[in-house]
Design brief:
Chain lengths: ~190, ~190
Amino acid sequence: MDNELLLLGLLRLESMHGYQLNEFLDKRLGFLTDLKHSTAYYLLNKLEEKGFITKDVEREGNRPERYVYELTPAGRDRFHDLLAANLREAHMPDYNTDIGLLFIDAVPAEDLREALEEKRAGLAEMLETIRVYVDEHPAGSPARYALRHNIAHFEVELSWLDEILEELNSQHIIRGDIFSCIQTNEETA
Amino acid sequence: MDNELLLLGLLRLESMHGYQLNEFLDKRLGFLTDLKHSTAYYLLNKLEEKGFITKDVEREGNRPERYVYELTPAGRDRFHDLLAANLREAHMPDYNTDIGLLFIDAVPAEDLREALEEKRAGLAEMLETIRVYVDEHPAGSPARYALRHNIAHFEVELSWLDEILEELNSQHIIRGDIFSCIQTNEETA
DNA sequence: CGATTCATGTAACGGGTTACATGATTCG
DNA sequence: CGAATCATGTAACCCGTTACATGAATCG
């Protein structure tokens, strides 16, 4: 759904052909999406079938033909619906990362430290590449909001890792395994 | 992969049958996974095919038959590999949420405020249910680490939303649209 | 006796990725 | 001339979800 929103949102301001969209996504929105080329083409076809966009054939010089997509009124409605849903919904911060954490008692302290240091280095590197971009975007622009949001999460991640690493270095020992999890009366829907 | 890790990690300490595993996941690990019953059964079969676990038929009284799974040595190796990978790899904090943020210039300020307030309320509620559990887990236990990690991310999310809401309330206007994104020389792999 | 629990699955679908296919054109 | 760019896709697969199916046993 979010990918659909992304495509509609781009076409809302400017009609584009698939290749052009993919270029934009790669080169200018690389910091907030990984949408693959084939996925984009696939989605464009689907959106056209559903009547949210229309396809126009175009050709520039002797280059291959290209299909320029334009938002329809129905597409504009769809965009607003998806946008409202995205802004309204609270969604869980990803917790799959923490699955490994549950089993740290199975890893020798030295290996654990090494692994987490590596993770930390990777995160720090990602953060640095993002930091460079944030200042290049105009203050108050949506992109800058998104980038700062991202940075905030990277920072928690890093300080979180630092906390664990510090405890590891101070001989702090992890007590208990996964079975020390207590019963949580999770309401079943 | 993370789900596989989770199942292997549970079976590492105790052989279990599918239903029992699912119960444990629902009632005691609900705060860090959403793994569905059918997915768990499917994964168990796959893990058995691959030789990471063995299946034993068991029956208690007149209850339906059940299949008790036990980790094999190959499974133990697999567990350690997946765990090492999980602990080592740096993975991007989810950015799909931010796609909506890119288009906030398309929403009237009042609607935007309302939507974000709703998101905020949802997040705050989730956070409260988690907070209750954290104190009930023994200090230094893996589960507590995971819970606190989760809480930290919820907190950034909330203060992040508060920041935006504050700017909205102080008549701060968002300038520029998605096309104000600059070119980021993302290295193509 | 009806609902819930115990226990295991299958079928269809959804969303996305990877790898592959195609073919002209322009660049070095 | 070979490589990269322009331009669009298909096929196979992967991981996971939803909805459905089954059937005995126990609970209230």
